[in-house]
Amino acid sequence: MQAAAEVARFAASVAMQWYNAGVSVETKGDGSPVTIADREAERQARAWLEERFPAYGLFGEEFDTVRTDAPRRWILDPIDGTKAFVRGVPLWGTLVACCEGDTVLAGAACYPAVNELVVAAPGEGCWWNGNRAQVSTVSTLREATLLTTDDRFLERKHRREPWRALASEVAVCRTWGDCYGYLLVATGRAEIMVDDIVNPWDAAAMYPLITEAGGRFSDWKGYPTAFGGDVIATNAALANATRRALLESDVPPIPVIA
Asked: pTM value?
């Protein structure tokens, strides 16, 4: 957990050198943006980890995977929220997770533009700027704040109606989510964060942050995993209500473990 926090803070400080500096933006094959800040932050984070954990695998957004057969691996997202980063919006972060198979052993997220760091590991709690983090106790959807990164993705045919119904029931619905939305749930400032499309580097660090803060984290089939390709993250009180509203109709509901 300490190493995850340290390398997240370090890589975030590297990325900050290019924040609000007018960097050039390239478009990757999947249509997502990338900058020198993304690549350099990940490159330096990999070097930091190679020196300290030479037997571990490395899996990141910007470079090839190293040691695919290693029992443990580090998962890196140097800038989660590059679209925000390049526009000078401070709600981006550096994400780091250590995993054994699909079990996340530790996760950290550093948000240097807003001076927030959150770190967690199973059984060790979730810690936000050195203080214990807890999800909110809001227990009704009409009082809840619902977040997503980009609601256009949720307008796809098979998810449009459940999403619109949930969004119409809550008190507040906001975007500009990315990794900052999960932080808001983990620290009790929002109740629900959903994403329709996520990669392992987007979600792995977030799993222990949410669950160790007392929340619930699953894919859209209801499985408690960071590797399902989509995410529903909530406080504990609204876990069942949210999943009843959103779970895919063609998949039998999976009970959320309390």
From this structure: 0.94
